[in-house]
């Protein structure tokens, strides 16, 4: 498997999280920034929830879908694709 951090390919993975943070200090800062974003409770109206082996495609003017999400990303891969023209898709594998 290929691993990249930013634009840098990783040739040797550090053996501890301390090693990761010392090699890529920005990961710690961006991780803290991500976890400091307040959570938002989303009701079922306008929510498209994806489970494993499901995918969805929507467009910006779709009034039925306001948010696409999943909470099953710990053991799965989630790919979010967004067309620069405004079309977007979420693929849950």
TrEMBL record:
Domain of life: Eukaryota
GO molecular function: protein-N-terminal asparagine amidohydrolase activity
Pfam families with a match to the protein in the record: N_Asn_amidohyd
Record-given protein name: Protein N-terminal asparagine amidohydrolase-like
Organism the protein comes from: Hyalella azteca (Amphipod)
The gene coding this protein: LOC108676781
